[in-house]
Amino acid sequence: MNTLQGKIALVTGASRGIGRAIAQRFAAEGATVVITARSLNTATVEGTLSETARLIEAAGGRAIALAADLENPAERDALVERAVAAAGGLDILVNNAGFAEYAPVAEMPGDMFERTVDHYLRAPFALIQRAVPHLRQRGAGWILNIGSVTAEPPQRPFDDFARFGGATVYAAVKAAMHRFTEGVAAELQIDNIAVNLVGPSGAIRTPGAARYIPADYPTEPVEYLVETALALCHKPAAELTGEVTYSMAYPAAHNLIVYQLDGRTPLAQ
C-alpha cells in the first residue's frame, strides 16, 4: 500500500477494462488518478468515467474525471494541461486508450487505418510531448504504454487468426509502439523519466475486446497486467526504463505477488 502516495497519474481510456483497472489499483496505492475517456456518462460499450470514479472513491481513493476525445486534435492537445490544472501536477502518464478494429489489409477502409494510427501511436506521441515538460518540472516521471502480444511476428505455419483475423494493421502499430517506447526511454533517461510498456500475454476479456474473443477462448485476469503496470511506474529511470514486457511474464520473472485491485488481497492462484 501507498507505493504511489502523493503521485498524480493520468490514465487514458479509463472508463472500463484495462484503463479502469489500472486507475483503481493506482488509486489504492495512494495516487490521485486523473481518468479520461470520450464522455463522463455515456458509452458505446459497457463502462463510463463516472462509474470508474465512483468505484475509486468508494474504495477511499481520489479520482478526477475529464472527458476528452483523443481523436479530436484540440481535445487531445489540451488534455495534459487540463489534468495538471485539475490535479496540481503530473507524475505518471498511462497511454491505454484505444478501440481495436480489425480488417484484412486488402479490405480495410482508409478511415479505419487512420483511427488505428490515431489511437495507438499519434495520441500517445502527442500526450508524451505535452507531458514531458511537467515531468521534468517534477524532477522525475513515469510513462507507461500499453502494448500487445500481436506485435510479435505471426508463427509459421500461419494459423487461422493470422490468415483471417484482420489484425495486421493493429499489430503493426503496436509493434511500432514497442520500438517507440524503447527509443523514448533512451531519450528521457537523463531527465529521470522512465518509459516502459506492458501488453497482455494473451487475451483479457474487457468490454472493448470481448467481440473478438470466442466464448471458450482462455483469457487471463487483468490483475497480472495491473501488477506489472504498478511495478513499472515507481522505480527511478536509472533503475528501470525501456522495459517492454508482457503481463504474465513480468510477475513470474520478478517474483511479484499479484494483488486484486484493492491492493490488499492477493489474487487467488
TrEMBL record:
<comment type="similarity">
    <text>Belongs to the short-chain dehydrogenases/reductases (SDR) family.</text>
</comment>
<dbReference type="InterPro" id="IPR050259">
    <property type="entry name" value="SDR"/>
</dbReference>
<dbReference type="InterPro" id="IPR002347">
    <property type="entry name" value="SDR_fam"/>
</dbReference>
<dbReference type="Pfam" id="PF00106">
    <property type="entry name" value="adh_short"/>
</dbReference>
<dbReference type="InterPro" id="IPR036291">
    <property type="entry name" value="NAD(P)-bd_dom_sf"/>
</dbReference>
<protein>
    <submittedName>
        <fullName>SDR family NAD(P)-dependent oxidoreductase</fullName>
    </submittedName>
</protein>
